[in-house]
Amino acid sequence: MLELLAWGDTGWGDELVRGTLMTLAVALCSFALGQVFGGLGATAKLNGGIVTRAIAEVYTTVVRGVPELLVIYLLFFGSSNAVMGIASLFGYTGYIEVNAFTIGVLSVGLISGAYSTEVIRGAIQAVPFGQIEAGRAVGMRRGQIFFRILLPQTLRYALPGLGNVWQLTLKDTALISVTALAELMRSAQIAAGVTRNPFLFYVLAAVLYLVLTSLSTYAFDRAEKHANRGVRRA
Amino acid sequence: MNLSIMWDAVPKLLAGVPVTLQLVSLALLFGFVLAAVIALMRLSGSRIASSFAATYVFVFRGTPLLVQIFLIYYGLGQFPEVRSSIFWVILREPYWCGILALTLNTAAYSSEMIRGGIQSVPPGQIEAARACGYSRFLVFRRIVAPIAMRQALPAYGNEVILMVKASSLASTITLLEITGIARRIISQTFAVFEVFIVAGAIYLVINFLITRLIRYAEWRLTPYLRRPA
Which domain holds residue B189? Predict the structure, then answer.
């Protein structure tokens, strides 16, 4: 069994480790992209006009109500068409392929963003309005109120929810394996197929995912403790 | 946008609805029983039982469902001992493997909701029941179970929706439920957006109906919260 996991050409150890790093890379990029979508979505829902609010509402309802796999298929099969369609407007008619990493980050980021929207919206609403009024009363500008009052507290309130979103995002990256991007799940699939040893490799993949999720639980616990260090508890 | 492809896709995709609903309802049914057992183990006070339950929840919540499905469908079939055992009748069918994986997965999540529900029952009510001479079982049946159910229902509603979405992963082990059929139509017609819209709409309708049902159940279970007419 050990020779199957050897480093280099003979074993699959290095492929699995590389797959884990790829999973981590996809998850981090998707989560970051998700925060951008989430921030925009929450802003649109709280401060937007009718149109932007409706767009944000449709976005979160559809993405949260439709299976993740379907969203990934949409981008996997549809992104080349969409990009080529846009390119043809500028007179380029050749074939364009969007690479699997971009598709993965885009689709998981889209999903992550829909969940983050709700988390961030709730966190912004949790900041007492009196504090914003107080900021105005002492003559703070909008930007100052945002950076000194709203943002630090929103971060603190949003942290537990964002921890959940991160775990979801991390696990959703396994679905990217359908686009043949060599992340952890895909590497395990290839190894399982070549060595005819699926049990071993899927158990290993499960263990590696467990390591990633437990490390992130630990990291978010630490972050929450740090963020709440100034909060008095009854 | 090709409307005729969309129109043709509607009956084909609707044909996948029964499979999706079967996967979800069977997994929820078996999963709920398993979840109740795990929650009771967790709360049993026995160190072995409660650490087993905690490990179970940790493992199934910490790994992607796709890994669990592949481990059950491809992984277990690797061993000749499994293939010659009586379990092979179940484990060789992608349908039952899908249900098994979804069951084990939902049991891990729902057991935590049941545990939270049980723990939210005010101790005073249990004491009151004991003072009235209720037996342990009667306390559970008349006091703990109804209150816990009411408490856990909103969270459980979310779990049902998540299961509808999770059932789409059964398409990766060749099951033709809604997503599996959608994928097949896409690879035949390349009409990505059209098929996505129809399949997505079907899922949204299913999930909408489920949220309505759960909300109705919540309304029925909380008569004391209603305003007198």
Answer: 3-225
**Which single residue is written with the structure tokens 């846009």?**
A86
Looking at beta carbons, which residues of chain B come within 8 Å of A78?
192-193, 196
* Cβ pairs A/B, distance under 8 A: 117
Please tell me whether the overall predicted TM-score, pTM, comes out greater than 0.80 for this model.
Answer: yes
Kindly identify which residue of chain A lies nearest to residue B165, measuring between CA atoms. Answer: A67
From chain A residues 19-58, the ones with a CB under 8 A of any chain B CB are none
Output the CA angle B56-B59-B60, nearest 5 degrees. Answer: 85
B205-213: long-range pairs with CB below 8 Å, 24+? B206/B17, B206/B20, B206/B21, B206/B164, B207/A65, B207/B161, B207/B164, B207/B165, B208/A65, B210/B157, B210/B160, B210/B161, B210/B164, B211/B157, B211/B161
- Split into its structural domains, chain B has a count of 1
Query: Quick one: closest CA in A to B206, which residue?
Result: A65
A195 touches chain B (CB under 8 A): no
Tell me the per-residue pLDDT of A27-68, one tens digit each, with 9 for 90 and over.
Answer: 999 999 999 999 999 999 998 899 999 999 999 999 999 999
Give the CATH number of the domain where residue B54 resides: 1.10.3720.10
Taking the CB of residue B80, how many other CB atoms lie within 10 A of it?
8
